[in-house]
Amino acid sequence: MEPLPFPVFPMLLGQKSMSSSPVGGPTSMAKMLDFCARHKIAPVTETFPMSKANEALHHLHEGKARYRIVLENDLG
Predict the structure, then answer these.
(1) pTM over the 0.70 mark
(2) 37 phi and psi, to 5 degrees?
(3) Which residue blocks in 14-76 are alpha helix, DSSP H?
(4) How far apart are CA 72 and CA 48, in angstroms?
(5) Pairing of strands 68-72, 45-49
(6) What are phi and psi of 75, to 5 degrees?
(7) Are 70 and 49 in contact (CB under 8 A)?
């Protein structure tokens, strides 16, 4: 893959940005979500109460998290 040349200074002056996503654009995302809904595919998550966010981060940093950690609000 070759570097993508683009003028930085005009981007700075115009407060513009460039970004990308490894999951594709909105159309690809909609197709993927539709496919998952049709085939009853759900994400695999581990949930932690927000009051235990530090424990959740420790779990993540130790490499014990499987797939995605979700914090649930229990703070009032």
Answers:
(1) no
(2) -65, -45
(3) 26-38, 53-61
(4) 6
(5) parallel
(6) -100, 30
(7) no
